[in-house]
Amino acid sequence: MTVHRAAPDASRAGEEWAPAPRRGAALAARGAAGLGAGLLALAAFSGLGPDPSFSPVAAAAVAGLAVVALPRVGWLVAATAVCLWLATEGGQPGTAMVLACALAITPLLLPKAGMLWSAPALAPLLGAVGIAPMFVGLATLAPTPRRRAGLGAAGFAWLALCEVLTERDLLFGAADGTLARARWEGSAVNAVGDAVVPLLSTPALAPALVWAVFALLLPLFARGRWAAADLLVAGAWAVGLVAAHAALGDALSGAGPGLAQGDALSGAGPGLAQGVVVGAALGALVAVTVGLLPSWSHERHHTPRAGRGSRSRTTLSPDR
Q1: Position 5 in a domain
Q2: Does residue 30 belong to any structural domain of this protein?
Q3: Is 40 inside a domain boundary?
Q4: How far apart are CA 155 and CA 151, in angstroms?
Q5: DSSP, residue by residue, 120-178
Q6: pLDDT (tens digit, 9 = 90+) per residue, 231-267?
């Protein structure tokens, strides 16, 4: 009698492919999301208002743990708590309004991607050291095209709003008509008119679209298969990103005091914002280097598709 072995279910092949590394990656992603949210909460409690009546470190730890447990719900609760504290005990409802705008735009641009909601904060951090466009290269590492574009756009939105909050030129400077924070931090209504409306009524947010487009472009052509080809593509991508920022710098030269006062990158052209060349080059280098990693390339090109009626196993834990 011949015994026939049942053929393996093709729809379950992906489930048997290295489940342990995926579980570890999911846990690491949650840990990173919690750490990012905790650091953001600590920065808000320590830097945006007066000394709170509670321990900022303890509150930040609670926020981080909440995001680890439930990334989306925890992040929204933590963001709401920070804004409420700033508007009440902190005595700065105007600052809370501007911060709330930055926080609210993130879930809209990155729906169902709670573990990425703190990532846009990297854009103003990179802007603080003069290499803001590097964030576009980091955004290309998001797992799907929609999240790459959303992350790129959210990063610039955070950058622009942080320029308003900190009164520092992190890239192109604050929009024309933006008043000093002391004029509106005590009133939510004044904050809308003197800080938020100038961003929406001028082309100051146009670079968000450019960041989204460039975050989409690089992974389309740099596939992580041939290093030489990817380096050439990344070089062309970086040149294009620099050229786009040069054009934006010219177009936005009247949108804020930064470029008008000569903060353009020395020797790179009158309309070029600071750090664009270095930031674009570093972003391209990081994106290509990570894309060439064997595990990253395999994940990008061989992610299994779930069969009909089955759930996708791209991640093992839901991003709630």
Answers
A1: no
A2: no
A3: no
A4: 6
A5: GGHHHHHHHTT-TTHHHHHHTTSSSHHHHHHHHHHHHHHHHHHHHHH---SSS-SPTTP
A6: 898 899 999 999 999 888 877 775 444 433 333 333 3
